[in-house]
């Protein structure tokens, strides 16, 4: 029996307009946009190679992060097509690929480090003590986000 190997991409979805709190992007819309880009770049053969294992595992509108899973054989096709995805649900957008991993566990470890660095740079850019205290109060009020990715 042959084991199917996957690759996972962590990408930041940069929208032209900010995501509204009630506007949740559907996984199907994201997959349609990626498949459309693959079809325009690699044709029907590219779609056939990538469609079998291509799946958006997780989308978080608050952090603008998404996990995309694909089979290892289609990895190069999908990653070469991501920069050419320009519209999602009728809005202008772009992908910023942050990390590529072989397991979800390594992707989660990287994502924790990434968010920690982002918070440190944001905290370091604050000028006054009042701004820092307000920032710390906001962090204390935030509920931890625990997501199970199946």
TrEMBL record:
Similarity remark: Belongs to the eukaryotic/archaeal RNase P protein component 2 family.
One biological process term in Gene Ontology: rRNA processing
Subcellular location: Nucleus, Nucleolus
PANTHER family for this protein: POP5 HOMOLOG, RIBONUCLEASE P_MRP SUBUNIT (PTHR48414)
Residues of the signal peptide: none
Protein's name according to its UniProt entry: Ribonuclease P/MRP protein subunit POP5
Keywords for this protein: Nucleus, rRNA processing, tRNA processing
Family annotation (InterPro entries): Pop5/Rpp14/Rnp2-like (IPR002759), RNase_P/MRP_POP5 (IPR016819), Rnp2-like_sf (IPR038085)
A Pfam family annotated for this UniProt entry: RNase_P_Rpp14
Gene3D superfamilies: Ribonuclease P, Pop5 subunit
Known function: Component of ribonuclease P, a protein complex that generates mature tRNA molecules by cleaving their 5'-ends.
Native organism taxonomy: Eukaryota, Metazoa, Ecdysozoa, Arthropoda, Hexapoda
MF (Gene Ontology): ribonuclease P RNA binding
GO CC, alphabetical: nucleolus; ribonuclease P complex
């Amino acid at each position: 029996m042959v084991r199917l190997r996957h690759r996972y991409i962590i990408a930041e979805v940069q929208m032209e307009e900010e995501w509204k709190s009630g506007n949740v992007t559907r996984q199907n819309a994201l997959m349609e946009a990626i498949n459309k880009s693959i079809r325009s770049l690699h044709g029907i053969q590219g779609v056939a190679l990538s469609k079998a294992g291509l799946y958006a595992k997780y989308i978080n509108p608050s952090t603008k992060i998404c996990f995309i899973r694909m089979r290892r054989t289609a990895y190069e096709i999908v990653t070469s097509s991501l920069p050419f995805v320009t519209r999602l649900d009728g809005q202008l957008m772009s992908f910023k690929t942050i990390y590529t991993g072989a397991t979800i566990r390594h992707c989660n470890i990287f994502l924790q480090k990434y968010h920690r660095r982002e918070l440190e740079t944001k905290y370091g850019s604050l000028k006054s003590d009042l701004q820092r205290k307000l920032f710390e109060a906001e962090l204390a009020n935030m509920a931890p986000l625990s997501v199970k990715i199946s």
